[in-house]
Task: inverse folding
């Protein structure tokens, strides 16, 4: 007799799901309430919040809130009622695509309803079974899922290791010359967990020796890195060498959705072949209008990005001066590396939230190796230097407690 799917699921709830009962609503699926920003309510008390990718503070910018409300009042959230290709196109969608192309300095752009889905679907669309993918080992789940859909060969290179990337390119070149296929290299502008930028400039330089196209997921770079906010490629002076550029609207734009920019013919190919967009409803016009306003603010108010970086530098240099290990981050993502068990991590987070009123995300095994705890802080333009100072003081106190064994337990914190 075959197994029953429900019985299998009940027996194996997954590496995070096994903690669901004890952690749901607190360590996992917490509810942050109130206006988006550095001060939000968690279980009825105001917390200083470092867990949102609202980098430029646009979620609650008065002009953004007005543009969103006005657009929703005129169009509702239902319009347009079809896929772009069939009945859901509009001048606003095309205007936003044109403005984004100019912003990231590419010929053309396609809007996508969700960033994750855009990446999975674009990779699926760009390669066929003769092609070879070369990708970074610590790529985001959506890139991995896109690679999983690929019917041909793939070679993974050690995280941000350009030498290993070249080695895999040599293997890929040999294979592609046998299959008659092409090579797609995939990496990220900023790796969201550790905050290190992908070595885009060095990878682009490999084009002198190898024939490949470069796909960059710049979810954490768009709006935040580079002189005009065009992202990690601009920051590293190699935007031109990025052949397919992905940006999300879920972080610095403080909305939802994403886009892919590239050469005109490549984007046209995506428009007519990318399954997740052809066979799915268009992005609502209300969101498109909200995005146009956000892009206008990004272009015309560099002080937002400057404030973000002032806070980021204060946070990162302050943590380092206080003796914290923050790893190789060269973006706004600020991970604090600590050592301890999962129960210790939960007791520490509980103390931090309940007694110091600081809320940040915690990352433990299996996302990182056993024994490692990462407290991940995301500074935004809406934070103040006083928020930074207070947080570093609290972190110093809790880390002393961690080191003296105060959080030790064999059970995760009772919530
Ligand atoms: C590096 C990276 N790529 C892609 C995504 C997916 O983007 P979205 O949230 O817009 O679906 C994320 C979101 O967490 C991300 O961090």
Result:
């Amino acid at each position: 007799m075959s197994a029953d799917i429900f019985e299998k699921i009940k027996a194996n709830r997954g590496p995070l799901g096994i903690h669901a009962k004890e952690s749901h609503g607190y360590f996992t699926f917490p509810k942050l309430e109130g206006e988006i920003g550095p001060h939000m309510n968690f279980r009825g008390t105001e917390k200083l919040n470092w867990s949102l990718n609202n980098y430029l503070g646009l979620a609650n910018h008065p002009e953004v809130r007005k543009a969103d409300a006005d657009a929703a009042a005129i169009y509702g959230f239902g319009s347009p009622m079809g896929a772009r290709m069939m009945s859901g196109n509009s001048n606003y969608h095309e205007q936003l695509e044109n403005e984004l192309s100019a912003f990231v300095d590419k010929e053309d752009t396609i809007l996508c309803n969700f960033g994750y889905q855009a990446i999975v679907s674009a990779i699926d669309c760009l390669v066929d079974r003769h092609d070879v993918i070369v990708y970074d080992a610590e790529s985001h789940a959506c890139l991995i899922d896109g690679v999983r859909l690929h019917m041909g060969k793939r070679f993974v290179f050690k995280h941000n290791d350009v030498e290993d990337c070249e080695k895999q390119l040599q293997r890929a070149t040999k294979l592609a010359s046998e299959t008659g296929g092409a090579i797609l290299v995939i990496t990220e502008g900023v790796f969201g967990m550790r905050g290190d930028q992908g070595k885009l400039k060095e990878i682009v330089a490999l084009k002198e020796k190898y024939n490949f196209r470069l796909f960059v997921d710049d979810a954490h770079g768009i709006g935040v890195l580079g002189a005009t906010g065009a992202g990690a490629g601009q920051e590293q002076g190699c935007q031109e060498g990025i052949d397919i550029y992905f940006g999300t609207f879920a972080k610095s734009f403080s909305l939802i959705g994403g886009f892919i920019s590239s050469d005109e013919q490549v984007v046209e190919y995506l428009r007519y072949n990318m399954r997740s967009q052809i066979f799915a409803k268009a992005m609502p016009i209300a969101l498109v209008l909200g995005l146009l306003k956000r892009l206008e603010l990004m272009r015309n108010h560099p002080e937002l990005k400057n404030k973000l970086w002032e806070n980021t530098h204060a946070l990162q240099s302050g943590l380092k001066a206080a003796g914290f290990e923050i790893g190789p981050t060269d973006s706004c993502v600020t991970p604090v590396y600590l050592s301890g068990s999962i129960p210790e991590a939960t007791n520490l987070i509980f103390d931090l939230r309940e007694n110091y009123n600081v809320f940040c995300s915690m990352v433990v095994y299996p996302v990182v190796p056993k024994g490692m705890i990462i407290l991940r802080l995301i500074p935004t333009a809406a934070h103040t230097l006083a928020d930074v100072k207070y947080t570093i003081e609290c972190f110093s106190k809790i880390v002393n407690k961690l080191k003296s064994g105060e959080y030790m337990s064999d059970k995760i914190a009772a919530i």
Observations:
- The chain has a mean pLDDT of 97.
- The pocket of pyridoxal-5'-phosphate is lined by residues 114-116, 119, 140, 142, 188, 192, 217, 219, 248, 250, 258 (CB under 6 Å).
- The longest strand covers residues 183-188.
